[in-house]
């Protein structure tokens, strides 16, 4: 199954890829279905289930569904236009998506949070309905937001379809072992194999332009976070800290008075800047999710700004390598906190970043695989227990530590020859098994861990 670099790195909005982006994408897909339907509905409604219900308000799931039914999409999201649309929807009690006309929709009544058992397919389920003037259901579809902005209908999930396969690719590795074997036999790097696969779907120019856009959005998001101050929305009164920390670090530069470990503060502040923007509902790139969006760009920024010889011309190589690792994790386990806890989000992101950094630092394919394994192994068992269901505590700082682990993992791997005891495939399978065994309280429900042991307001 082919997973593109642009499947793993999607441009969207915060605070959550599975709870915000996914539901908005589902609503957009539902509108497209209605546009091709023989029915002529007069109203729409939504029911949120499982994790989407329990932490939906904190993750702005209801807002995402409302805007999605109004025609908004994550990739082209305009914050000012969204605020105007929400005011109109609340005033008129209707949405008016292109090609469907005005549809009755009362946000207070037509977005239902169902706190019963989750739907059978996945912890992140939602049902979208189109009704006639009498309230009878004309069209109904169940969607599952399976992490990283990926959305499947009930039928697609049952069929095991995450994305269309399309034309065969030259290097169809489905495991790290296959990836290493293909790299050895072809003489190509992981990034080169990934590039060859991508170029069966698009031109080289389109690929490079897309990769540059991904990095530009990542960098701009980080820069906004490094400049922004104030209190994050949601009711926890969490203060933005990245700007203040960044200013302090800049003031210390050149004094020769700082300890070597301060580099960790630079790495952390880059990640925190991204995740503060995500928590504020800004534009981010899933990497592989919104909750883990800071790890990869922070590691790239560390490399560019602090490592001699780094060049932006090789950021594409970093992203291609990272996406190859992300594809292995998604295909063989999960990148969803609602499925496997934060090990699947920040753990996966750290493995991706470690692999990308090892690649641009000149690592062999074996060293790159080792770097990814070290990073993932040392996130195994990490729970997802966001306080008040917000992607703030412990998520923002956790991205900083994930990036630090990525740098350490890459450095350790490059000190060896690539041989190591635990294969990446074993770490990925262990993560999957651990997630299956993990209590639902610790999988993005805000029903356990820090979420119940820290005051919510």
Would you write up a description of this structure?
This protein has 457 residues and is an alpha+beta fold. Helix content is 51%, strand content 10%. It has 20 helices and 9 strands. Strand 7 and strand 8 form a beta hairpin. The longest helix has 24 residues, at 204-227.
CATH topology of the largest domain: 2-methylcitrate dehydratase PrpD
At the first level of CATH, what is the class of the largest domain? Answer: Mainly Alpha
By secondary-structure content and strand pairing, the structural class works out as alpha+beta
Name given to the CATH architecture of the largest domain: Orthogonal Bundle
Oligomer: single chain
Question: Could you give the distance between the termini?
Answer: 45 Å
Q: Biggest sheet, in brief?
A: 5 strands, mixed
Strand content: 5-15%
Average pLDDT reading: 95
Q: State the low-pLDDT regions, or none.
A: none
**What Rg is obtained from the alpha carbons, in whole angstroms?**
22 Å
Short précis:
The chain is α+β, with helices and mostly antiparallel strands. Helices cover 51% and strands 10% of the residues.
Keywords:
60s Ribosomal Protein L30, Chain: A, 2-methylcitrate dehydratase PrpD, globular, alpha+beta, two-stranded antiparallel ribbon, 457 residues
Write the layout of secondary structure elements.
Layout: H1 5-8, E1 11-13, H2 17-35, E2 43-50, H3 51-54, H4 61-69, H5 79-92, E3 94-95, E4 103-104, H6 107-110, E5 111-114, E6 124-131, E7 137-147, E8 150-153, H7 154-159, H8 176-186, H9 190-198, H10 204-227, H11 242-252, H12 263-279, E9 283-285, H13 295-306, H14 315-332, H15 337-340, H16 346-360, H17 365-377, H18 395-414, H19 424-437, H20 450-453
Parallel strand pairs: 2-5
Antiparallel strand pairs: 1-9, 2-6, 3-4, 6-7, 7-8
């Amino acid at each position: 199954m082919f997973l593109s670099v642009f499947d793993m790195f999607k441009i969207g909005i915060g605070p959550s890829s599975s709870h915000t982006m996914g539901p908005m994408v589902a609503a957009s897909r539902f509108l497209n279905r209605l546009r091709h339907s023989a029915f002529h509905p007069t109203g729409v409604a939504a029911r949120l289930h499982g994790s989407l219900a329990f932490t939906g308000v904190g993750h702005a799931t209801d807002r995402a569904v409302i805007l999605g039914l109004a025609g908004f999409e994550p990739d082209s999201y305009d914050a000012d236009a969204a605020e105007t649309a929400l005011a109109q929807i609340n005033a008129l009690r209707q949405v008016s998506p292109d090609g469907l006309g005005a549809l009755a929709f009362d946000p207070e009544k037509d977005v239902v949070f169902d706190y019963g058992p989750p739907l059978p397919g996945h912890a992140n389920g939602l049902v979208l309905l189109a009704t006639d003037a009498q309230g009878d259901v004309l069209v109904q579809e169940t969607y599952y937001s399976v992490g990283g902005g990926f959305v499947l209908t009930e039928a697609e999930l049952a069929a095991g379809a995450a994305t269309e396969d399309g034309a065969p690719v030259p290097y169809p590795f489905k495991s790290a072992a296959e990836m290493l074997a293909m790299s050895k036999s072809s003489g190509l790097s992981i990034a080169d194999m990934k590039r060859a696969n991508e170029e069966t779907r698009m031109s080289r120019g389109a690929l490079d332009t897309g990769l540059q856009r991904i990095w530009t959005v990542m960098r701009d998001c980080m820069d906004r976070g490094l400049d922004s101050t104030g209190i994050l929305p949601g009711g926890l009164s969490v203060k933005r800290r990245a700007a203040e920390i960044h200013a302090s670090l800049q003031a210390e530069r050149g004094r020769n008075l700082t300890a070597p470990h301060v580099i960790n503060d630079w790495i952390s502040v880059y990640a925190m800047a991204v995740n503060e923007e995500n928590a504020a509902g800004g534009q981010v790139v899933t990497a592989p999710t919104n909750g883990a969006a800071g790890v990869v760009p922070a590691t790239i920024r560390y490399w560019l700004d602090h490592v001699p010889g780094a060049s932006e011309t090789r950021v594409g190589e970093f992203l291609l390598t990272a996406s190859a690792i992300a594809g292995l994790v998604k295909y063989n386990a999960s990148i969803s906190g609602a499925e496997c806890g934060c090990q699947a989000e920040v753990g996966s992101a750290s493995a991706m970043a470690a692999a990308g950094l090892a690649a641009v630092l000149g690592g062999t394919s074996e060293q790159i695989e080792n770097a990814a394994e070290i990073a993932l192994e040392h996130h195994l068992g990490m729970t997802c227990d966001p306080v008040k269901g917000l992607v703030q505590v412990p998520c923002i700082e956790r991205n900083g530590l994930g990036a630090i682990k990525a740098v350490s993992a890459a450095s350790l791997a490059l000190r060896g020859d690539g041989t190591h005891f635990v294969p990446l495939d074993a770490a990925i399978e262990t993560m999957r098994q651990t997630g299956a065994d993990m209590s639902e309280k610790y999988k993005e429900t805000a029903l356990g861990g820090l979420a119940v042991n820290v005051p919510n307001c």
